[in-house]
Amino acid sequence: MRHLTVKALAGMALFTGGVAISFAAGNVAGDPTKAEPIAEKLCSACHGMDGNSPVTTFPKLAGLHPTYLLHEMHEFKEHHRENEMMAPIVQDLSDSDMSNLALYYSAQKPAPDVVTQPDLLALGKKIYFEGNPDSGIPSCDGCHEESGAGSDRFPRIAGQHADYILEQFKLYSSGGRKFGKKVMRTVAERITEQEAKAVAEYIASMP
């Protein structure tokens, strides 16, 4: 099998010269084309076929690092993340299914979200890049990168739905994501409601 970067191969045929191509990105190897029917049947209603969820309470998956996506699917499967909709879906997915889905959604093009409170963007940008030293809140770009692109350990948040971001703050602060990153629990416990809304709006505006 030839191992090739999935984003460099987007749109290529599955077979070249009669030899099946195996895609790889980071530590995830698989075939994103095999994920398409799974995505259509199980994922698209909430996350969109292209990973840009049409529902603001469901996360956009397009452009997230495949290693991060795969890790989060395992977290749902092992009940480290609780969600009544995700739990039954991941239980029926094999390891290869999840790898294929991670590669598939990571290769989709992310789209920015709609900003509903533009007056909060300045404050959101300030917190994103500077945090709030007075309350001990670190900047967001330290983990999620200046562009919001994230990494294999931290999710891409650029263009993510503001409603989803706010819901995650609530889950972290209430202990609903007890297996999540400790730094996020700290941020969620210290950030004010106004600051959280501002950060969520700024994140939604990021391309």
Summarize the structure.
The chain has 207 residues and is α+β, with helices and mostly antiparallel strands. Helices cover 44% and strands 8% of the residues. It has nine helices and four strands.
Describe it for me?
The termini are far apart. The model is unreliable at 1-21 (pLDDT under 50). The chain is α+β, with helices and mostly antiparallel strands. Helix 5 packs across helix 9 (193-205) and helix 7 crosses helix 8. It has helices spanning 36-47, 66-77, 86-91, 95-106, 121-130, 141-144, 162-174, 182-190, 193-205; strands spanning 2-5, 15-16, 19-25, 28-30. Helices cover 44% and strands 8% of the residues. It folds into two domains: 2-106, Cytochrome c-like domain (Cytochrome Bc1 Complex, Chain D, domain 2); 118-205, Cytochrome c-like domain (Cytochrome Bc1 Complex, Chain D, domain 2, Orthogonal Bundle), CATH 1.10.760.10. It contains nine helices and four strands, in the order ββββααααααααα.
What key attributes describe this structure?
about 210 residues; Cytochrome Bc1 Complex, Chain D, domain 2; 2 domains; 4-stranded mixed β-sheet; 9 helices
